[in-house]
Design goal:
40% helix; alpha/beta; 2 domains; Rossmann fold; globular; single chain; 6-stranded parallel β-sheet
Length: 377
């Protein structure tokens, strides 16, 4: 089979599909991604072919790695380019596909050009949601979460393929009573990807200290909050691994206490496998990876679907929500201490881990894609 992935060309949208693509390649299928320069290496190192789009913005050059959250105007413009309408990229992808023999298109229902292509293609289509499943009823419920007019929100979120894969445990899906059989919940896939381990961290984890992992993701770098964490958590009886992203330099944070390790980037799966608490921005992939490892969450959301994710974490008793900009040093220290000592439901976490283990994962997702070819044969 010739399988083409049309995802939003951003780390958080492409990364969850790479283990799926790897398994498809292992089964003898050909896999191609339409992507951007910053993701080319990730795609190709996985064994897939990368077609670099000449007309698409690369998020690595626009909103990523700034100090502080992107301002509303920048974020709106970026999301309109990626999610709503971009005829230049649509034309580029369509022109390339016309020269290819295509069996199945796996697309991101938030990708502007992905949605445009599936409306005209004769190939079978499989949507791969990189957040929650969203239909008309759920869109009505979350209308206040995103700062878009309803008409724009419809263009961003409402799209379905012949099959629809959701890499989420069913119980974590908000308003799941609105979701029908057209969606298949396969559970998280991103933790199956391979990462090279950090030797310094490997040695640290051998010491068997409690580990608090702090990361605000790949888009936002919040220097003020990093300073707050260092002051609040200095010399506590646990070790803090603080990931600061690309725009902040480690030396900007001054002298570090003995119990705090700061790195610009970390192999997140290695850290989560050893972490006791994860303070996160609530990115979709980070949250799913933490739940798969059974790590309780402190969620500090700042944009997009993160407030909704934080709401789910709190309502399911898998962690708590904070405001990174408003929380005091004392309250932050108290919050982490509470989470290290049972400030969440261990029963709920074990139930979630068990559900994830039974969700079907990559084998189920692969079988859905392969079934599309059988139907078209």
């Amino acid at each position: 089979m010739n399988i083409y992935f049309i995802m939003v060309p951003a780390f958080g949208h492409t990364n969850p599909t790479l283990p799926l693509a790897k398994e498809l390649l292992n089964r003898g299928h050909d896999v191609t991604y339409y992507t951007v320069p910053s993701l080319k290496e990730s795609v190709e190192s996985n064994g897939a072919r990368a077609v670099v789009l000449q007309t698409a913005e690369d998020p690595a050059d626009t909103i990523s790695n700034r100090d502080g959250a992107p301002n509303e105007e920048d974020l709106q413009g970026h999301m309109m380019h990626m999610f709503v309408e971009n005829q230049a990229v649509t034309n580029e992808v369509m022109n390339h596909l016309e020269q290819e023999e295509v069996d199945v298109i796996v697309y991101d229902p938030m990708s502007a050009w992905g949605k445009a292509v599936v409306l005209t293609t004769q190939a079978k289509t499989v949507s791969f949601n990189t957040s929650f499943a969203i239909n008309e009823e759920i869109l009505t419920e979350i209308a206040g979460t995103f700062s878009f007019p309803e008409q724009v929100a419809r263009k961003i979120f409402l799209s379905t393929g012949d099959e629809n894969i959701v890499p989420v445990p069913y119980s974590f899906q908000p308003w799941n009573h609105y979701v029908g059989d057209e969606y298949t919940f396969v559970g998280p896939l991103a933790s199956k990807r391979k990462q090279q381990e950090d030797e310094e961290l490997r040695q640290l984890f051998k010491e068997k200290e409690k580990i608090v992992y702090i990361s605000l993701g790949s888009v936002v770098s919040n220097r003020e909050f990093y300073h707050k964490c260092i002051r609040a958590l200095a010399n506590e009886q646990y070790h803090v691994v603080l990931k600061i992203g690309g725009s902040t330099q480690i030396e900007d944070l001054g002298e570090l206490p003995r119990n705090i390790t700061v790195k610009r980037f970390v192999p997140q799966l290695q850290v989560l496998e050893n972490a006791d608490v994860f303070l996160t921005h609530g990115g979709f992939n980070s949250t799913m990876e933490a739940l798969e490892f059974g790590v309780p969450l402190i969620v500090a959301p700042h944009m997009a679907d993160q407030p909704l994710i934080a709401q789910q974490v709190e309502s399911l008793r898998l962690g708590v929500k904070i405001d990174a900009n408003r929380i005091s040093e004392e309250a932050l220290r108290t919050c982490i201490h509470s989470m290290l000592h049972g400030g969440y439901s261990t029963e709920s976490m074990m139930t979630m881990k068990d559900e994830i283990a039974r969700s079907g994962g990559i084998p189920l997702a692969v079988s859905i894609i392969e079934s599309r070819k059988k139907e078209s044969s």
